[in-house]
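Chapter summary example.
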Amino acid sequence: MSDNPLRKSHLPMTSLKSGTVYDVLPDVAGLTVKIVNITFVGHPGNRDDWVLIDAGMPNEHKAIRKAAEARFGQGARPRAILLTHGHFDHVGSVVELTEAWEVPVYAHPQEIPYLTGEAHYPDPDVEVEGGMIAKMSRLFPTDPVDLGERVQPLPADGSVPHLPDWQWLHTPGHSPGHVSFFREQDRAMIVGDAFVTVRQDQLYQVLTQQQELSGPPRYFTPDWDAARDSVQRLAALKPDTAMTGHGVPMQGNELSLGLDVLAKNFDEVARPAHGRSVGN
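The structure predicted for these 280 residues follows.
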């Protein structure tokens, strides 16, 4: 790993407990909200100069605001909320947070119908190859949130509002408008569910957070060709640090080599053998 100070990290080496805030890079921290991770981007103590990426599970807005104030200071409020996509575990508290903070939300244009009450995601694929959580996914909500005019499309030029060193990348497959965020300076990547570092359909792995670089959660991924192309695009960027929506962050050779293997063997190791999403 480089001696660039931007690349020094404090990646957690053990499983993440809900409510745990952890430093990943000097200006990037994660917060585990039950089964999902959200990201704070901004230096600690900069009360009004940071952004939130994703908004976690429903009814967690108070915990998220408390964590934000602990990191950035009393009364901390982000410049914006950025969404990787609109699945329930990534936008569960976004309405309450936008009302409390009165800040804009940005997402890919193809995701906006799911954020303005206009469209429902497909039902989870409970027949997909996978473990217990795949079978339990029938209980997961697919109803959209309604942010109204608070949600805006990300800039078409790939720039990220309030994060001039970052770019957004369209990484569909898990959802039509799924995006990831990349900073070339230190090759940091925030990927939502484009790929994850835990087998999210396997109950034991989720409970123990056993680290395994994996494709997107199977029960909520309708387009596997697009998902493969997205992983290959991200792998080609040779990231040094990756924060995922589920699982522990990864860094260095473990990440770059593992992501290369995933990209090259995606159809064999990530694409399910059966299920509605693969036509059998």
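To summarize the output: Residues 1-10, 200-209 have pLDDT under 50 and may be disordered.
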